[in-house]
Amino acid sequence: MKPYNVYSSGIKDVNFGENVKIVEPVNLYGCFIGNDCFVGPFVEIQKRVNIGDRTKIQSHTFICELVDIGKDCFIGHGVMFINDLFSDGGPANGDQSKWRTTKIGNKVSIGSNSTILPVEICNNVVIGAGSVVTKDIIESGTYVGNPAVKIK
Ligand SMILES: CC(C)(COP(=O)(O)OP(=O)(O)OC[C@H]1O[C@@H](n2cnc3c(N)ncnc32)[C@H](O)[C@@H]1OP(=O)(O)O)[C@@H](O)C(=O)NCCC(=O)NCCS
Fold it and tell me: In what order do the strands lie in the sheet with 74-75?
């Protein structure tokens, strides 16, 4: 018996719109990706995620379960979404009742290396590179920093 188990990444059970462009390697499973989207290399998109039409996901981004992204968004390189806040002092260890949802509106651009905690972000928002979004954003504008605050 081998002393390790190997699982393959790839594209499995994904519901695609038309004219989607993907640069492998990626790990996409059980998600929905709308028309004319782009997904760059080394991206993981987990099950039940929805990506709206014309949204672009740049390389090295991680989109976990319970995330919904609107149309015409730009998700930069290495953007991390979070659904488990370690609210009871550590990981939920698969207890999905502890996971939280994220909803990103339309025309939202998220700068590279940002972290998005479980929040709602309204339409027409820019998040600066390296930001950490900890609270809902309900007004259009540009937000930067950790925690992200509105600058314009
Ligand atoms: C947020 C952003 C859009 C702001 O651009 P801008 O409107 O031209 O703003 P400015 O460069 O005039 O900066 C305004 C202020 O915010 C600060 N700031 C800008 N971007 C910041 C960031 N990402 N994090 C923290 N502070 C930032 C600036 O230092 C400046 O501060 P000051 O007023 O104290 O001098 C831009 O800086 C950014 O982060 N873009 C992300 C780009 C990206 O990740 N692209 C991915 C594909 S390559």
Answer: 21-22, 38-39, 56-57, 74-75, 108-110, 125-127, 141-144, 149-150
Ligand 1 centre to CA of 75 (Å) is 16
Mean per-residue pLDDT pooled into runs of 10, the chain (152 residues): 93 98 98 98 98 98 98 99 96 94 99 98 99 98 98 97
Superfamily of domain 11-150: Hexapeptide repeat proteins (2.160.10.10)
Q: What global pTM score does this model have?
A: 0.97
How many whole angstroms from 144 Cα to the centroid of ligand 1? 7
> For the chain, which residues make up each domain, given as ranges?
11-150
Nearest CA owner, ligand 1 atom 29: 144
